[in-house]
Automatic annotation (TrEMBL):
GO terms for molecular function: ATP binding; histidine-tRNA ligase activity. InterPro entries: aa-tRNA-synth_II (IPR006195), aa-tRNA-synth_II/BPL/LPL (IPR045864), Anticodon-bd (IPR004154), Anticodon-bd_dom_sf (IPR036621), His-tRNA-ligase (IPR015807), HisRS-like_core (IPR041715), HisRS/HisZ (IPR004516), HisRS_anticodon (IPR033656). Homodimer. It comes from the Bacteria. The gene is hisS. Belongs to the class-II aminoacyl-tRNA synthetase family. This is Histidine--tRNA ligase. It is found in: Cytoplasm. Its EC number is 6.1.1.21.
Length: 416
């Protein structure tokens, strides 16, 4: 039979890939904990309306990237393309809209029917943080500082730049939108077909176009700055001074809009030049309307998500698996004592392995192949005397140690 392949745009995480992935999640979870965020886990599929209501019918994600299907009971189901809508749905479903603030961290797989390329997959993984409740720019700055500190703990913050923009409030955005429609209508002959369609339905989306000819036109489009209401301007000024307070460096980029409809005020992206076209590693913004879209009361919120695959690719060194100890029984009679020593080592928190068969030579070859730091060799004669030979495979030295003291001995001499 022919061998089956993974579905296009999906990847298996094995060995170093999985270690990098786990290191990103573990690190992010730890730093999020320092900021007072609790982890939530939502289902990876939801009622399709969770996404169609919130991300915007005209967004790329909803209009062409969702994995949607009707299940056997006739319900419209979608594999989640992102995490924020599900967190807001869960906030409402679990009756938490009056228990604010909620500070939520999550990690898990997301699904989008995209054209696969480096850093862009159909099943990918995100970590994310949502700070639901506060409407103050201090919260936006704190959420961004959390993102920055996670990148710093991963050792990759120096490869990124934080680009920051404001999308204003609804009133600012309405007048900006009119100005954009006026500007792009004059140029409509030069717009890509996609963007001509956006012009009617959602002109802000043109600013996010990946088409080079659109981008040339976007360069001279009107900026939000001129349309900010006094309240929106106060928020924008407050955000920048709060970021200074957290010691977060940024560059204002008036071209940043996010790909989803639910953002207002703050929009930001940590970008890198080290990943080719897929340069955005961590991105988010304020989404004050989303909880209401899920049937809850109007609730301010700010959050971000980061692509784990992209973060993994930037990691400076691969996280290494713990160096194991190999237990080497010489002859079947030594096996029971070998199992005892192996379990004592594991109880002491030391990664330990033993082959299932083979003579001493084979077993020592296997110890080298798995990169063991120590071999614990037990012959019949040693077992009778209640001792083992502990060989330091890096140094080439060997020492006789009492059976009951092997774990303590290795713990005391192995490199930290
Ligand atoms: P892009 O402009 O690269 O398509 P996006 O605006 O669609 O990104 P978001 O929805 O904001 O991205 O998701 C946040 C992060 O998740 C991105 O910055 C990126 O790191 C990661 N991401 C998004 N889509 C994919 C994908 N298909 N494969 C891998 N990572 C992804
Ligand atoms: Mg996208």
């Amino acid at each position: 039979m022919d061998a089956l392949q993974p579905v296009r745009g999906t990847r298996d995480l094995i060995g170093e890939d999985q270690r990098r992935h786990a290191h990103v999640v573990d690190t992010a979870r730890r730093i999020a904990g320092l900021y007072g965020f609790d982890e939530w886990s939502m289902p990876i599929f939801e009622d399709t309306r969770v996404f169609s209501r919130s991300l915007g019918e005209t967004s790329d994600v909803v209009s062409k990237e969702m994995y949607s299907f009707t299940d056997r009971g006739g319900d419209g189901i979608t594999l989640r393309p992102e995490g924020t809508a599900g967190v807001c749905r869960a906030l409402v479903s679990n009756g938490l809209t009056q228990s604010l603030p909620q500070k939520v961290f999550y990690a898990g797989p997301m699904f989008r029917y995209e054209r696969p390329q480096k850093g862009r997959y159909r099943q990918f993984h995100q970590i994310g943080a949502e700070l639901i409740g506060p409407g103050e720019p201090l919260a936006d700055a704190e959420a961004i500082a959390l993102g920055r500190d996670i990148l710093a703990a991963l050792g990759i913050v120096d490869q990124t730049v934080l680009e920051l923009n404001t999308l204003g409030d609804a009133e600012s955005r309405d007048s900006w939108r009119q100005a954009l429609v006026g500007y792009f209508t004059e140029m409509s002959g030069q717009l890509s077909e996609d963007s001509r369609a956006r012009l009617e339905r959602n002109p802000l989306r043109i600013l996010d176009s990946k088409s080079p000819s659109d981008q040339a036109l976007v360069a001279d489009a009107p900026l939000i700055e001129a349309f900010l209401t006094p309240a929106a301007r106060t928020f924008w000024d407050g955000l920048r001074s709060a970021l200074d307070g957290f010691g977060v460096a940024y560059r204002v980029n008036p071209r940043i809009v996010r790909g989803l409809d639910y953002y207002s005020h703050t929009a930001f992206e940590f970008v890198t030049t080290n990943l080719g076209a897929q340069g955005t590693v961590l991105a988010g913004g304020r989404y004050d309307g989303l909880v209401a879209d899920m049937g809850g009361p109007p609730t301010p919120a700010i959050g971000w998500a980061a692509g784990i695959e992209r973060l993994s690719m930037l990691l400076p060194a691969s996280p290494i698996a713990a160096v194991p100890v190999a237990v080497v029984p010489v002859g079947d009679a030594a096996l029971p004592a070998a199992v005892d020593v192996m379990q004592a080592l594991r109880q002491a928190g030391i990664r330990t392995e033993m082959s299932y068969r083979g003579n001493v030579k084979r077993r020592m070859e296997r110890a080298n192949r798995i990169g063991a730091g120590f071999a614990v060799i037990l012959g019949e004669e040693e077992v009778a005397r209640g001792v083992a030979q502990v060989k330091d495979l890096a140094q080439g030295t060997q020492q006789e140690v009492a059976l009951g003291a092997v774990a303590a001995h290795i713990a005391s001499v192995r490199p930290a």
